[in-house]
Amino acid sequence: MKESDGKIVIVQAPCGPIKGITEVSDFNYEYASFYEVPYGKPPLGPLRFKDPEPLEPWSGLFDATVGVQNTVEDQIINEDCLKLNIYTKNTRLEGNPHPVMVLIAGGQFVRIRNHKDYSGPNYLLQKDVILVTMRHRLGALGFLSSDDPAIGVPGNAGLKDQVLALRWIQENIADFGGDPENVTLFGFSSGACCIHYHLMSPLCKGLFHKAIMMSGSAFFARGLMPKLNWAIRLARKLGWEGEDSDEASAFEYLRKVDVKAMKSTEQTLLTDEEKFNGLESIYGPVIEAYKSRMCIIPKHPDEMIKNAWGHSIPLIIGGVQDEGLLFYKDVKENPKYWDNLNTNSSVLLPYNLTLEPFKRELYGNRLKLFYFGRDYATVVDKLDSYIKLIGDRNFWYGIYRAIIERLRNTDYERRGPTWVYRFAYESPTMNQYRLVEHARGFPGVSHADDVLYIFSNNEGYGTPKEGTPEYVMMQLMVGIYTSFAINGDPNNDLLDAAMGKWEQISCSNPLFGCNIANPPEMMELPEKERVVFWDTLYKVSREQVIVPRDKEVWD
Predict the structure, then answer these.
(1) Rounded to whole angstroms, how far apart are CA atoms 88 and 169?
(2) Which domains does the chain have, with CATH numbers?
(3) Does the pLDDT at position 89 exceed 60?
(4) Could you give the CA distance from residue 519 to residue 313 in angstroms, rounded to a whole number?
(5) Among residues 253, 119, 126, which one has the least CA distance to residue 186?
(6) For 374-506, where are the alpha helices, taking DSSP H only?
(7) What is the C-alpha R_g of the chain?
(8) Cys staple from 410: which of 78, 257, 311, 497, with CB 3.0 to 4.6 Å?
(9) For residue 150, with 0-12 CB atoms within 10 Å meaning exposed, 13-18 middle and 19 or more buried, which class applies?
(10) Where in this chain does the record put each Carboxylesterase type B domain (predicted)?
(11) Nearest Cα to 485, choosing from 50, 113, 99, 177?
(12) Is residue 31 within 8 Å of 25, Cβ to Cβ?
């Protein structure tokens, strides 16, 4: 980002007056930034774990000129986090309203990076759109729950924070030059899972008009978490000495605990048995046990998806070529994991694949045979196949299931246009997740590598130079995303010149989509055979109904 004279921009919005600042992008255009704008009451003290509450309008001038440079850890433990960043090239806040793109970032429901050094606006604002990034509660603060209405913590506070942010945008974005009738919600990984729930929940109907789901859905491995007495277990770890039956006391204790201590303890709660059965994390979306003011997940997504209002709006959905590289570092450097995998096939199955114990081992062996064949000494000899397996298990199957359910539960006339993609561009320099965080020295395109071509990022490669293949790919991705936000269709002149028309999916070929590479091309995605195999396993699980579905609270 280049130096700017930092002219002040003042917005008179329904929430109150806000002072922003102009900046200059690496592409030499000027834009206005409004940092850390609050959209809800700080969820502190008695509001910890509770559903979010709207913020009363303020009268004084709110200073939104300074962006937060917090580390990831700082953002996790900062409770006063119900904040938005708003970026607009329309610095005079006049003329025709611009389409609005709202990001829900990923991070496994426990971390988030949405500040400008990670999710910067430089690329997207080359086009006439407004970018909004949000922070919301994570971990225990955002996803601890109780089935007792008297405690008042039904769960999914982090999801409900997002709903409150979307309501704020509807009420205020016009004064930033945005069009509240043209809002695209987009996000990756757990952010895409959240978007999928928003597409299913009537609570969110009308708050956005198009969606992009990148590498995630409500059907992915962490899309719905079990309720295993987490509040009691967490409080106990932190020194609480009450009775296991007194959950209200445990919550009162947790409302006074230091957030940093809570964060450092949460991953120690998993038992060896839970880990063995595929449970990798303790926080995420849950089915709410009773109806409340902001109930967002009243029943299992298997049921919610049947009447999802979002089936009727335009959708882009897909993933990356080698999603499983996200886990490469963990498994490559963990000999005990490999030893366990060689002797206990059931550890290959995710927690949400509910099978009788003897079937878990049986189906684990089927997975080994399907992915590895018979000719290997240990699983580590088939690391490339393992990367495919773990990527399909944790991401691609959930993507496939979301596509199939969208097709299954709507007819052609009522279904919004749907485009499927697979990001497969492998860069020697810019695929930051593979190169820096996950799998240095291993080829491929890692989970979230596509994000680097949508958002300017000062933590890694930086802005690609004009004329490089990375620059061409960045412009292609920006064209796809902004064309969709503006027109409801990802097709644009740049994509047309590269491959022709990106066709929508059909019931006869649900995984026929755009393979975004150099060059891009339409193709049947190579994951198809593998995700169909996973679907046979999940169908057995759904037919067993080992875990009873929670009662519906919406009639």
Answers:
(1) 14
(2) 318-544 (3.40.50.1820)
(3) yes
(4) 29
(5) 119
(6) 383-391, 397-408, 432, 469-487, 493-499
(7) 23
(8) 311
(9) exposed
(10) 10-534
(11) 99
(12) yes
Q: Strands, DSSP E only, in 7-97?
A: 8-13, 16-24, 30-38, 62-63, 83-88
Q: Alpha-carbon distance 345 to 363, whole Å?
A: 8
Using DSSP, state whether 190 is helix, strand or coil: helix
- Residues acting as catalytic residues: 189, 323, 447
From 130, 22, 135, 8, select the one nearest 61 (Cα to Cα).
Answer: 8
The encoded tokens of residue 331 equal: 């498994």
H helix runs in 270-409, sequence order: 272-276, 301-304, 328-332, 335-343, 357-372, 383-391, 397-408
CA dihedral (322, 328, 332, 338) in degrees, to 10, reads -80
d(CA 93, CA 202): 32
For the chain, give the number of residues: 555
C-alpha 76: how far from its chain's center?
Answer: 16
- Tell me, what's the pLDDT at 251? 98
What's the token pair of residue 408? 């299954």
Q: Is the whole-model pTM more than 0.90?
A: yes
Question: How many whole angstroms from its chain centre is CA 308?
Answer: 18
Are the C-beta atoms of residues 148 and 29 closer than 8 Å to each other?
A: no
Cβ 481 vs Cβ 423: under 8 Å: no
Cα 478 to Cα 476: distance, rounded to the nearest angstrom: 6
* Arithmetic mean of pLDDT over the chain: 90
Three-state secondary-structure class, residue 414 = coil
| Token pair of 442 as six digits | 């291993």
- Cβ atoms 85, 28 nearer than 8 A: no
Task: Indicate the SS3 state at residue 86.
Answer: strand
Alpha helices in 190-290 (DSSP H): 190-200, 230-237, 247-254, 259-266, 272-276
Most confident range (mean pLDDT) of 79-93, 110-124, 337-351, 465-479 is 465-479
Instruction: Return the biggest CA–CA distance within the chain.
Output: 71
* Residue 547: both structure tokens together: 């875990």
Nearest 5°: phi and psi at 252?
Answer: -60, -40
**CB 98, CB 129: distance < 8 Å:** yes
Give Cβ neighbours of residue 284 (< 8 Å, ≥ 6 apart).
Answer: 108, 109, 143, 190, 193, 222, 223, 224, 225
Distance CA 532, CA 529 (A): 5
Closest CA to 60 of 9, 94, 18, 32: 18
The better pLDDT of the pair 477, 115 is held by 477
pLDDT score of 543 more than 50: yes
Go through 360-385 and write b for each residue having 16 or more CB atoms within 10 A of its CB, e for each that does not: beebbebbbeebbeeeeeebbebeeb
User: Between residues 75 and 92, which one has the greater pLDDT?
Assistant: 92
pLDDT of residue 549: 40
